[in-house]
Input
Amino acid sequence: METVAERFDTTRQTMLSQLGAFTDRTREAGLAFATETREAGSELARAARGEAEAWTRFFGERTRPLLAEGPSVPEVDVPALERRLLVGLRDLLGRLDSRLQSRLEDPRPGQPPLEGYDALPAKAIVGMLAELEPATVAAVASYEAAHKGRKTILRATERQAA
Output
């Protein structure tokens, strides 16, 4: 028969093992997030640099003939120019937002949303939903729909999201 000390030692070993696994997983997730954020920031910087270069070319093409002609300067439709710039920026930010939302909804594309997910019965997964972040609930719904398609889980994720 197991003693209290042995039971404590077993619990300690189990918890140390789980703590190590938790630390490794959160470190990996943090590194993945930092990499994705750095890549998105670099993409934004490249886009801004490209736009600055395009504006430099645009104004260069427009001012060269004006400087050659002399003091007569045509009217520039500043509001239309500003609108074109803002529409371009909105489109760029929309693309970046889509990538961000995709990453938040499915932080590990193609991977189960929870450790051991594929081995869990539907009842266990439904019981966990209330404790999960909204992004993880969305990942559960997406993964379940693409794989097993269990209606119990899909309905529960819909209720949780509402």
Observations:
- Residues 109-162 form one domain.
- The mean pLDDT is 83.
- The radius of gyration is 27 Å.
